[in-house]
Specification:
By secondary structure, the chain is mainly alpha-helical. The chain has helices at residues 3-9, 16-46, 50-55, 78-96, 100-121, 132-149, 152-165, 181-197, 232-240; strands at 57-58, 127-128, 206-211, 217-220. Strand 3 and strand 4 form a beta hairpin. The longest helix has 31 residues, at 16-46. It starts with a helix and ends with a helix. It comes from Streptomyces olivochromogenes.
Length: 244
Amino acid sequence: MGGAERERVGTGPMAPEQMIAEARKAFFVMFGFLALVWLAQLANFADHYALSRDYGVVSGDIGTLPNILTAPFLHWNWAHIESNSGPLFVFGFLAAYRGVVRFLGLSLLIVVTSGLTVWFLEQGNVDTVGASGLIFGYFGYVVVRGLFDRHLIDTLIGVVMAASFAYMLTVAVPGTPGVSWLGHLGGLIGGLVGAWLFRDRRPRPAKDTHTGGGTGPTTRGALQPRADNPRADLHKELGDLGLL
């Protein structure tokens, strides 16, 4: 199975060249997503926020259940979308740079867990919209992904993000006025679950039946390049660091 196929199903690590290509795609995906969110805000503002009223999630209202797929694209005012845009791009990019296809599956999972948490548990006739659930989901995913994937660089990124943005968790607990803490909590749970579901499943090393210098069979990783490959040393160093 080739590297691209492995990434699609989350069964193995990527080569450095593929990782760079996926990071480039991740940048444009998040740029496009933000552009779409801002276009929706312009239309929403022009229509006096009728889109937020019509396509938000209201707890227990069966008619708004499909709106869990539209609510993340909508906001109530300019301050709302401005406060969400930066974290959405940063955490979204970090969540996507190891594979855009995997990221799309993760995003759908977070949207569903965040939206259903609001729909089932929110009190009162509250119309909930906003990308905050996605932000918290991407945050949770980025923080723990390295532990499940056993990638050193992702683990370090997770530690830095957790230390830098731990304050965000204060709006994922009860009692925060003016925000849907349930949407935040549901998104966070979706991101943590997604880190496990979409983790790398590294193949077992393949046994190489040839002998080297009469020392008996040797073991070579399934993705290990041949010794005469000019990039063999680079692959070995990246593998030792847990980057592959």
